[in-house]
Specification:
The chain has 136 residues and is an alpha+beta fold. The chain has four helices and five strands.
């Protein structure tokens, strides 16, 4: 089994806020993240599969980049995640939930169109804060 990885970058803003809580509780739980703020995000996607004897690839990395852009980063770049992104509507736009939703989008496309298995979605919010999701 071979694992290949591609990284794409995008910019987006979000706010961590529970509308059922008071302002004070939101500030207590979410701190400064209760304010609208932006990040320079990085989406790192790893797929796994066998090497195609005709190409030497598990998957052409140009195709992986195209899928990541068309399915995710083009749709979230320069948006307010809380309001502008349909797949996050009604959900808290935490890095954890965002990564899971990206998995739900990419896994079937990669399997059906490219016969590869999504192994990991790594979503980097800051250099010190990121989430890795393996589909479990």
């Amino acid at each position: 089994m071979i694992y290949i990885t591609r990284r794409e970058r995008f910019n987006a803003a979000h706010r961590l806020w529970n509308a059922e809580w008071s302002d004070e509780k939101n500030r207590e739980v979410f701190g400064l993240c209760s304010n609208i703020h932006g990040h320079n995000w990085e989406l790192v996607v790893t797929v796994k599969g066998e090497i195609d004897p005709n190409t030497g690839f598990v998957m052409d990395l140009k195709d992986l980049s195209k899928v990541m852009k068309s399915e995710v980063t083009d749709k979230v770049d320069h948006t307010f995640l809380n309001e502008d992104v349909p797949f996050l509507k009604g959900k808290y736009p935490t890095t954890e939930i965002f990564a899971v939703e990206i998995w739900k989008i990419l896994a079937p496309v990669l399997q059906e169109k490219y016969n590869t298995t999504l192994h990991c979605v790594k979503l980097i919010e800051t250099p010190n804060h990121y989430v890795e999701y393996f589909g479990d």
